[in-house]
């Protein structure tokens, strides 16, 4: 979060174009039956990072950083040539250090072992030796080219939505030396902030509020996994895809705000009213509707001036087509995610068979772990007996993989 | 060899490692050069040591910030490459540091020289603070001096982001003599003001030529500070008695800075006093310091190339010890020595080579107790 984004390594070296990203995955795609499987792997690994992070009691930002490290590592490496599980552990370990909340290497090893060995994941051979993780850390840091400062959308979200002030008052009473300058840190003076109520803001950052519009229910149908609560954050959700490699974080934040405004009943109506008549006045329909649910009543109780949402988006002076593009990507991520399930271990095997044959069925972690193993074997076979006449030297990373088990 | 390894090998080939020049807690430093140009560089090889416990936190911090920060007054990280099992940081080569210059008794500092070093320090620090990075280990031997006289802030092994309000930070940072009182009282929420205190101590040290507040233990450090500046009252520093590790170390009267810094100008003392205000919130910011009248008054800061140099530096530059006559000192204020009269301008500024053995590697020494 330090430094100026525009001058940062994040902006200069780690926002890549779609073609490079495609190039990075092209080898992996040769070993899967359907290109979607790679996207599922992206979701799967991000979930694992989030869960490992929770076990290590890492803050959300550390988890996000770990995920970005993971994505960056796989811009340069292949899923089928590495052991993503130990990479995940290394990402969490390095991110914790880079974000100033270090955890001991032993804890990372033991928690990873514990978690990955659960039946649903079926990773039997996570090394118990600290040095394996430390070695992976070294490869990770050198492939990251030591660029460890990562920017995230959270700060933009808070700054744009006027919640920073509320956060700034957390310091302990009576403490001196709190004089940290909270001045215009990322987005200038805070003038023209979007005043979102707690509900919509939480949508963008936190929990999807209960009122079920049809769109909501199709997009965000309750999932049956234990970490359901964690999954409900739009920005957090974006880390399940590769968006963080393609777009600067502030654009992702704006796309999340946009989605929130459109998905939230109240704000959507306000926007519709606004676009229908050019004068932004609250319509009577809105007030009648707010009485329908207790949640809405509570929100309406807060005296709120009708805001110019359209003007706010326009006033950001960012490329709105890009925002719309990101929003589309987030939506398609949700569509895909609907078919992914961190299902209970017992159903894992059965479903994996189904998932294998019919692309439209639920994909489980166990299936993805198996898929990964098959990819790795196929890759090994290919390298040993290249189908093309071109002989390939046995890759160093493959040795790493094998050494790691 | 895949593309990633190839790129790495290519980077590695750009640099040549020569002799080892020092060793620190987590790294070994080599002198080297750029193959194409012959430019002198330092290679800091981070020990990964059989991969026992992973990368040292200091190494992570240093690498993390140096990769992002580019400023004339901050040491430049030229490149990073990995070799077998080591990470190598390629840094610009710097001949000496401010501590060696201060300790070199053959050198005489003019007020304009001190002003020049202070200006460069504040510029570098302002850049860090503008980017919300706390250095947390400023001291003369972390201020390196390039052959052209430019001062560069180095050693980011303790640096971190200014934490979000409400997140605790450790108070076990900054070498004791340069540590501000709020840290000594165990304050866990602090700000860029901690670095300003350190700069104030360095400022005083440049004038005195000995460390200004050399406490022998953490407790003694508080006593030393209060002996020099007076015990703060609750008005001067509201709430300090409620800090976690607050202890009363006795009442000392306030003595005017003028009594110790007899030769300093009014502006000088005004800036110094603003750097070492007890209440952290009232301490001057790096940005405001740069706008302080001190920097605009005569004598103007010495041009970096004309600053006093140690013998090691001169030897490195392989130039004859030049009789520096560029220090325009139009009689504005006596030199801020230890009450000594100003020596003639044509004084030979470098004589001894006794410190030749010391070098950049000292930068790895963290005495962060």
TrEMBL record, chain A:
<dbReference type="InterPro" id="IPR043198">
    <property type="entry name" value="Cyclin/Ssn8"/>
</dbReference>
<dbReference type="Pfam" id="PF00134">
    <property type="entry name" value="Cyclin_N"/>
</dbReference>
<dbReference type="InterPro" id="IPR006671">
    <property type="entry name" value="Cyclin_N"/>
</dbReference>
<keyword id="KW-0010">Activator</keyword>
<dbReference type="InterPro" id="IPR013763">
    <property type="entry name" value="Cyclin-like_dom"/>
</dbReference>
<keyword id="KW-0195">Cyclin</keyword>
<comment type="similarity">
    <text>Belongs to the cyclin family. Cyclin C subfamily.</text>
</comment>
<dbReference type="GO" id="GO:0006357">
    <property type="term" value="P:regulation of transcription by RNA polymerase II"/>
</dbReference>
<dbReference type="GO" id="GO:0005634">
    <property type="term" value="C:nucleus"/>
</dbReference>
<keyword id="KW-0804">Transcription</keyword>
<keyword id="KW-0678">Repressor</keyword>
<feature type="region of interest" description="Disordered">
    <location>
        <begin position="272"/>
        <end position="302"/>
    </location>
</feature>
<protein>
    <submittedName>
        <fullName>Cyclin-like protein</fullName>
    </submittedName>
</protein>
<feature type="domain" description="Cyclin-like">
    <location>
        <begin position="47"/>
        <end position="142"/>
    </location>
</feature>
<keyword id="KW-0539">Nucleus</keyword>
<keyword id="KW-0805">Transcription regulation</keyword>
<dbReference type="InterPro" id="IPR036915">
    <property type="entry name" value="Cyclin-like_sf"/>
</dbReference>
<dbReference type="GO" id="GO:0016538">
    <property type="term" value="F:cyclin-dependent protein serine/threonine kinase regulator activity"/>
</dbReference>
UniProtKB/TrEMBL annotation, chain B:
<keyword id="KW-0808">Transferase</keyword>
<keyword id="KW-0067">ATP-binding</keyword>
<feature type="active site" description="Proton acceptor">
    <location>
        <position position="137"/>
    </location>
</feature>
<feature type="binding site">
    <location>
        <position position="44"/>
    </location>
    <ligand>
        <name>ATP</name>
    </ligand>
</feature>
<dbReference type="InterPro" id="IPR011009">
    <property type="entry name" value="Kinase-like_dom_sf"/>
</dbReference>
<dbReference type="GO" id="GO:0008353">
    <property type="term" value="F:RNA polymerase II CTD heptapeptide repeat kinase activity"/>
</dbReference>
<feature type="region of interest" description="Disordered">
    <location>
        <begin position="307"/>
        <end position="354"/>
    </location>
</feature>
<dbReference type="GO" id="GO:0070985">
    <property type="term" value="C:transcription factor TFIIK complex"/>
</dbReference>
<dbReference type="InterPro" id="IPR008271">
    <property type="entry name" value="Ser/Thr_kinase_AS"/>
</dbReference>
<dbReference type="GO" id="GO:0032968">
    <property type="term" value="P:positive regulation of transcription elongation by RNA polymerase II"/>
</dbReference>
<dbReference type="GO" id="GO:0005737">
    <property type="term" value="C:cytoplasm"/>
</dbReference>
<dbReference type="Pfam" id="PF00069">
    <property type="entry name" value="Pkinase"/>
</dbReference>
<dbReference type="GO" id="GO:0004693">
    <property type="term" value="F:cyclin-dependent protein serine/threonine kinase activity"/>
</dbReference>
<feature type="binding site">
    <location>
        <begin position="21"/>
        <end position="29"/>
    </location>
    <ligand>
        <name>ATP</name>
    </ligand>
</feature>
<feature type="binding site">
    <location>
        <position position="45"/>
    </location>
    <ligand>
        <name>ATP</name>
    </ligand>
</feature>
<feature type="domain" description="Protein kinase">
    <location>
        <begin position="15"/>
        <end position="295"/>
    </location>
</feature>
<dbReference type="InterPro" id="IPR050108">
    <property type="entry name" value="CDK"/>
</dbReference>
<dbReference type="InterPro" id="IPR037770">
    <property type="entry name" value="CDK7"/>
</dbReference>
<keyword id="KW-0418">Kinase</keyword>
<dbReference type="InterPro" id="IPR000719">
    <property type="entry name" value="Prot_kinase_dom"/>
</dbReference>
<keyword id="KW-0723">Serine/threonine-protein kinase</keyword>
<protein>
    <recommendedName>
        <fullName>[RNA-polymerase]-subunit kinase</fullName>
        <ecNumber>2.7.11.23</ecNumber>
    </recommendedName>
</protein>
């Amino acid at each position: 979060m330090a430094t100026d984004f525009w001058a940062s390594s994040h902006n200069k070296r780690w926002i890549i174009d779609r073609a490079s990203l495609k190039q990075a995955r092209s080898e992996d795609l040769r070993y899967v039956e359907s290109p979607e499987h790679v996207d599922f792997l992206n979701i799967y690994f991000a979930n694992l990072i989030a869960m490992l992070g929770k076990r290590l009691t890492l803050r959300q930002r550390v988890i996000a950083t770990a995920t970005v490290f993971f994505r960056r590592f796989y811009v340069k490496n292949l899923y089928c040539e590495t052991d993503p599980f130990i990479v995940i552990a290394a990402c969490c370990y390095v991110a914790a250090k880079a974000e100033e909340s270090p955890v001991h290497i032993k804890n990372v090893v033991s928690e990873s072992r514990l978690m990955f060995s659960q039946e649903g994941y079926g990773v039997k051979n996570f090394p118990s030796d600290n040095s394996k993780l430390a070695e992976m850390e070294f490869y990770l840091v050198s492939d990251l080219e030591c660029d460890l400062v990562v920017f995230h959308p959270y700060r933009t979200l808070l700054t744009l939505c006027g919640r920073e002030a509320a956060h700034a008052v957390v310091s302990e009473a009576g403490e001196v030396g709190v004089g940290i300058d909270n001045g215009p840190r990322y987005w200038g003076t805070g003038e023209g902030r979007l005043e979102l109520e707690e509900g919509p803001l939480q949508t963008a950052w936190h929990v999807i509020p209960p009122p079920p519009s049809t769109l909501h229910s199709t997009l965000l149908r309750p999932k049956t996994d234990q970490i359901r609560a964690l999954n409900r954050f739009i920005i957090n959700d974006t880390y399940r895809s590769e968006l963080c490699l393609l777009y600067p974080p502030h654009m992702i934040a704006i796309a999340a705000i946009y989605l929130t405004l459109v998905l939230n009943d109240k704000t959507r109506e306000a926007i519709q009213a606004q676009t229908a008549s050019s004068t932004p006045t609250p319509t009577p329909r809105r007030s009648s509707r707010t009485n329908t649910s207790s949640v809405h009543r509570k929100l309406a109780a807060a005296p709120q001036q009708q805001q110019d949402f359209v003007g706010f988006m326009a006033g950001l002076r960012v490329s709105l087509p890009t925002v719309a593009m990101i929003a589309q990507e987030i939506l398609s991520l949700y569509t895909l995610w609907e078919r992914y399930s961190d299902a209970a271990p017992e159903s894992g095997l059965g479903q994996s068979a189904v998932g294998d044959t019919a692309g439209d069925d639920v994909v489980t972690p166990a299936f993805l772990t198996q898929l990964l193993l098959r990819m790795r074997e196929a890759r090994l076979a290919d390298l040993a007996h290249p189908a093309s006449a071109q002989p390939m030297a046995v890759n160093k990373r493959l040795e790493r993989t094998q050494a790691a088990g | 060899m895949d593309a990633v390894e190839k790129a790495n090998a290519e980077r590695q080939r750009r640099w040549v490692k020569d002799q080892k020049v020092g060793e620190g807690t987590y790294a070994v430093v080599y002198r080297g050069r750029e193959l194409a140009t012959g430019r002198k560089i330092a290679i800091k090889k981070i020990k990964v040591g059989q991969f026992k416990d992973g990368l040292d936190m200091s190494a992570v911090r240093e690498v993390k910030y140096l990769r992002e920060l580019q400023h004339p007054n901050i040491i430049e990280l030229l490149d990073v490459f990995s070799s077998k099992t080591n990470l190598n940081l390629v840094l610009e080569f710097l001949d000496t540091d401010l501590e060696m210059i201060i300790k070199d008794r053959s050198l005489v500092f003019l007020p304009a020289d001190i002003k020049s070093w202070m200006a460069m320090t504040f510029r570098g620090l302002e850049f860090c603070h503008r980017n919300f990075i706390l250095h947390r280990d400023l001291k003369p031997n972390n201020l390196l001096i390039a052959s052209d006289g430019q001062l560069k802030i180095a050693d980011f092994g303790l640096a971190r982001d200014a934490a979000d309000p409400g997140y605790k930070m450790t108070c076990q940072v900054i070498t004791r003599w340069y540590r501000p009182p709020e840290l000594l009282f165990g304050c866990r929420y602090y700000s860029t003001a901690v670095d300003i205190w350190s700069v104030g101590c360095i400022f005083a040290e440049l004038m005195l030529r000995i460390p200004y507040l050399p406490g022998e233990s953490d407790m003694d450090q508080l006593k030393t500070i209060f002996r020099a500046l007076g015990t703060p009252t609750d008005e001067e520093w509201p709430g300090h008695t409620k800090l976690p590790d607050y202890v009363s170390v006795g009442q000392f009267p306030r003595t005017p800075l003028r009594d110790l810094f007899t030769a300093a100008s009014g502006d000088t003392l005004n800036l110094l006093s603003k750097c070492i205000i007890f209440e952290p919130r009232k301490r001057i910011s790096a940005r405001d310091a740069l706008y302080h009248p001190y920097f605009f008054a005569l004598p103007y800061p010495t041009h970096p190339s004309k600053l006093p140099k140690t013998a090691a530096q001169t030897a490195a530059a392989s130039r004859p010890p030049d009789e520096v006559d560029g220090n325009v000192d139009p009689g504005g204020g006596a030199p801020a020595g230890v009450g000594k009269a100003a020596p003639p301008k044509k004084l030979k500024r470098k004589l001894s080579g006794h410190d030749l053995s010391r070098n950049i590697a000292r930068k790895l020494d963290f005495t962060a107790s």
